[in-house]
Design a protein that fits this description.
Blueprint (H helix, E strand, L loop, with lengths): L1 H14 L19 E6 L5 H15 L7 E5 L18 H10 L9 E6 L7 H9 L4 E6 L7 H8 L3 E6 L4 H7 L9 H17 L10 H24 L4 H12 L5 E2 L1 H10 L6 H13 L3 E4 L6 H6 L2 E5 L2 H7 L7 H15 L5 E4 L5 E7 L5 E6 L6 H18 L3 E6 L4 E4 L4 E6 H5 L8
Parallel strand pairs: 1-4, 1-5, 2-3, 3-4, 11-12, 12-14
Antiparallel strand pairs: 6-8, 7-8, 9-10, 10-11, 13-14
Helix pairs in contact: 1-3, 7-13, 8-13, 9-10
Length: 442
């Protein structure tokens, strides 16, 4: 019975017509004897990306159906209580495949795609056997509540290479709208600015594209709830759900701002929710595990100094933040900062914030491709002379302390070159900065 179900699903996939989807630009390598794992927040497109890899192999490597096995374990036929599928039965999957495709050559590489594999307890033993099989390449993805980076490191023990997929970047968003990203013509710049304003508030979750604003908000609010219930509550079973929800909401409403665990603890207590101080840090680790929120430490060599200072909070998507936080339309500067953070994270930068000796804050400091430090400040606009003075002086002071000859201020739509005693401050639109990035890095 199980073999027949496997055959039915495999045959349906082999006969299915080509799907239409927006191609992603995540850069990846396929290595022998290592499973390729795609991780990321729910609904960012991991399953679709797995199919994109498969389709690329078919088109570019000219692979035949006999060389590709694709199975999604979330198929309701496999979840039937009558089957009670266990890891020890997964060998039947290979039997079903080779019976369907008896002409598969022994010396031809076999590419096995296992989507939502984490639904089968003990799956890692089966995958380990596949990896050790000559001429076999394995690709995995799964729900972030069940297949996290910490678990990959533990269960696969160096036998995998993992990549993180994020919601669409701005460049991918433009590509999905079939809008040229060339910024050197007036028409294109105008189109790009209009799209960027929409992207800033709507975000990069593909399911929300081309939807009405009200529908987009409903979808994103549902994501917010599913992340909380599936990836946090169902996974960790905390004794007081309302307290965890309060921490979740408070941190989402703090994106782009400094937050310490002491401050969060006091805010939760002020709302009359019972909580132990030791649990607050644990809550925040849960939120980071499922890719909902991120924390950026201060730039310091000392680990103690990093731990003693507050961290800057960012969320996985500006559309999600806009849909679930109050007054986000008035917080355009924070949304801009969050988008810059996400792009730097996609590019695998080691991101910190900088504080000068005079306690002036610079949003981002990181090493570029040449190993040199870069400073980036983000604000909505520099139209207010006092704002401009504050942003430039803070950046200039940081440049002097670090002996850097340039810094960057990113705004919504301004361009300028400012000479200071420490060096040159370049003012650029955020969207122009984003379009300098061509792919998500590994």
């Amino acid at each position: 019975m199980l073999k027949d179900v496997f055959k039915e699903i495999l045959l349906e996939d082999a006969l299915s017509t080509e799907e239409t989807y927006f191609p992603r630009s995540l850069d990846y390598d396929i290595l022998p004897r290592k499973a390729l794992v795609i991780m990321g927040v729910r609904r960012c497109g991991k399953t679709t990306f797995l199919k994109q890899i498969r389709d690329t192999l078919i088109k570019e490597k000219k692979l035949l159906p006999q060389s590709i096995l694709y199975l999604n374990f979330s198929d309701e036929r496999l979840l039937s209580p009558d089957l009670d599928l266990k890891a020890s039965q997964l060998g039947v999957l290979l039997e079903a495949f080779f019976e369907l495709f008896p002409n598969a050559k022994k010396n031809t590489p076999l590419h096995i795609f296992l989507d939502e594999i984490q639904l089968i307890q003990g799956w890692e033993l089966f995958v380990d056997r596949l990896i050790r099989t000559p001429n076999t390449f394995v690709y995995l993805t799964g729900s972030s509540s069940k297949l996290l980076s910490t678990e990959i490191a533990t269960q696969m023990r160096g036998r995998s290479i993992a990549y993180t997929l994020y919601p669409f970047s701005f460049l991918e968003y433009l590509n999905s709208k079939q809008i040229e990203s060339v910024i050197y013509t007036a028409r294109n710049r105008a189109n790009i600015r209009v799209c960027f304003n929409r992207f800033l508030f709507e975000g990069g979750f593909p399911e929300t594209f081309n939807q009405k604003h009200v529908t987009q908000n409903k979808i994103l609010q549902e994501y917010f709830e599913v992340l909380f219930l599936k990836d946090i509550i169902e996974r960790h079973s905390p004794p007081n759900i309302s307290t965890v929800r309060a921490a979740y909401a408070l941190l989402f409403n703090s994106f782009g701002r400094l937050q310490s665990m002491n401050k969060l603890y006091n805010r939760i207590r002020s709302l009359s929710f019972p909580v132990e101080k030791s649990l607050v840090s644990e809550f925040f680790l849960w939120f980071q595990e499922c890719f909902a929120l991120f924390a950026v430490p201060i730039f310091a060599e000392s680990i103690n100094r990093q731990n003693q200072n507050p961290r800057k909070i960012y969320c996985i998507d500006t559309g999600l933040a806009s849909a679930v936080t109050a007054g986000s339309s008035q917080n355009r500067g924070y949304l801009l900062e969050n988008i810059v953070y996400l792009q730097l994270r996609m590019d695998e930068k080691k991101i910190r914030y900088y504080r000068t000796k005079k306690q002036q804050e610079v949003d981002f400091i990181f090493e570029n491709e040449k190993g040199n430090l870069e400073l980036i400040q983000v604000c909505d606009n520099l139209s207010n002379p006092e704002t401009k003075k504050r942003e430039v002086i803070g950046l200039e002071t940081a440049m002097a302390e670090l002996r850097l000859k340039k810094g960057t201020i990113l705004t919504f739509d301004e361009t300028e070159k400012i000479n200071t005693k420490s060096g040159i401050v370049y003012v650029l639109p955020v969207w122009e900065f984003l379009l300098k990035k061509t792919t998500h890095k590994k």
